[in-house]
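Backbone Fold Data
Goal — fold tokens
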Amino acid sequence: KVARIGGTIMIAAKALAAQKQAEAIEAVQSTLPTDISKENLVAILDEDFSYQRWTTAVEQLDGNWTYMLIDSQLPNAFVTEIMPRHIFITTSMLNIIGNEDELALVLGHELSHMLLGHISEKNMVETMLRTVEVLLLSMDPTSGVLSLLFVGSLATLRTAFTAAHSREHEHEADELGIQLAAMACFNTRKAASVFQKLHEQAGAPNGKRLLSFADTHPSSSDRYEKLILASTTENVDKYANTSCSSVKSRLRSVMNTSGGSSNR
């Protein structure tokens, strides 16, 4: 089930990344002379942030993806650069997810982090902050007397900064994730309910939370409300004659090729 829904979301993600890449090329070309050489165009594109982001996304999405189920009581799902082309989801998260629409949104959200470059950016920011911390400590002229003060204050500063950074990333991934779910023909209003469930679980006695849904993230109730609002514009009707029908066609082709059949 996870692989089937993931495959549907993947088709939508690949189509979106290719579209954004093409739009980035068009945007750059619109500012250049029509007779520019291919070599010069390539050189300029290499310096364009949008083109680079979506070209990287196209490359990262390419190939076959594996969906790994982790036996854990902590609800979570994630993508990591350590193991490319893998999506991880815990058994606890699957127990919370009530239907295919909710699963599609969760998978779309995690893929969105990769598409938007959040994973690489997070690693870069944390590395930078830890480097600053080490440099400051190495310059301690008191032979370690100030080091304890530095460690405590810098750790607090780093945590606050990365938490704020992560919350911004979560909102961005929610926005793109619900778009992917809509493009893949899922009911985005029903899908948003997964965050209401996560909110209820977090407030329940002995409720378990992992970093993915803890302090570095906006509250699940806030995300639920924003996703419900977003579902009024990001839904199947918007993509019925474009992405949605294309995803269905490509999914049927993939399933037929693999000898399987689609339940959707």
In short: The chain is about 65% helix and 5% strand. The first strand starts at residue 66 and ends at 70. Residues 205-215, 259-264 have pLDDT under 50 and may be disordered.
